[in-house]
Amino acid sequence: MLTAVSCAHRDLAPGDRLAAWQRALSRTFVDVEVRVAHDRPWTGELTAERLGALQIATEDFGPGTVLRGARTAAADPRGHILVRRQLTGTALLLQDGRTAELHPGRLAFHDARRPFRIVLPERQRARVFMVPRALLRLEERQLSALTATAVDGADGGAAGLLLPLLDGLADEVSRSDPGRREQLARTVVEILATVGLERIGGQPESALWERITASVRARLGEPGLAPQDIADQHAISLRYLHRLFQLQGTTMGAWVRARRLEAAHEELAGPGAAHRPIAAVAARWGFTSPSHFSRAFRDTYGMSPAQWRRAAGTGRGG
């Protein structure tokens, strides 16, 4: 559901604007206090989209300051993680003794359980993702190290690949049908977790990558195994799946082919291989064509499967 909140000069009387804007931000995100300089003009516009547990909002506001104090945080039970992606203008995000200076293209996390301050020296525009902390699957110590640290896609690494994808997914949400939106939301959360983990020096794709590769290994014998099958199994988009393999310098097709060949290579050198037809070994590991298997095996290991079996001492020739 898409909801819109507006607080512009033309909408409300001057005396009511600030209170209305504070209520809008608190209702959309978490309870906050808003401060503005009364001798400077300001406006605020807000749209928010809920996708199950995930919320994606676009905020156009400034100049001003948004505060969440210790007392407010203690009284408000919402413990979400907010992720601010700066679109235009600048912002300073302060939390846990750190300050993230946000320019267009930068992103930073902040934790609703603890006080934070967002200083907006000018009118600016930002996209804010609000995620239940459990969905990010980051430990509390990792979240504490992550807050108010700027992530810049220009620095390379996973962020350089994933932040443009994040923007595309966020734009795609409003154009997608309800069934598709749920899948997009899960992909957005996976990207945010990956980017956050990389920022604090972890292996960004490690948890998801391990789950994906373990499931692929378990299905190597399925000849028709396709990337879409794996993407659906892990509730991520096909595009994100391809990105994860790209981060490893490969494709899913190449990775699966290499693992199948490794498994067949190991089986042909093992006990009992002398009495097992090579075509049966190929089929066991997902190769539907024995001739294709033999060519791929020779290209990889420099000898045919039969030659390898003899060299490994299993004693049977073709």
Automatic annotation (TrEMBL):
It comes from the Bacteria. Residues 210-311 form the HTH araC/xylS-type domain. Gene3D superfamilies: Homeodomain-like. InterPro entries: AraC-bd_2, AraC_XylS_family_regulators, Homeodomain-like_sf, HTH_AraC, HTH_AraC-typ_CS, Tscrpt_reg_AraC-type_HTH. GO terms for molecular function: DNA-binding transcription factor activity; sequence-specific DNA binding. Pfam families: AraC_binding_2, HTH_18. Keywords: DNA-binding, Transcription, Transcription regulation. SUPFAM superfamilies: Homeodomain-like (SSF46689). This is AraC family transcriptional regulator. The lineage of its organism: Bacteria, Bacillati, Actinomycetota, Actinomycetes, Kitasatosporales.
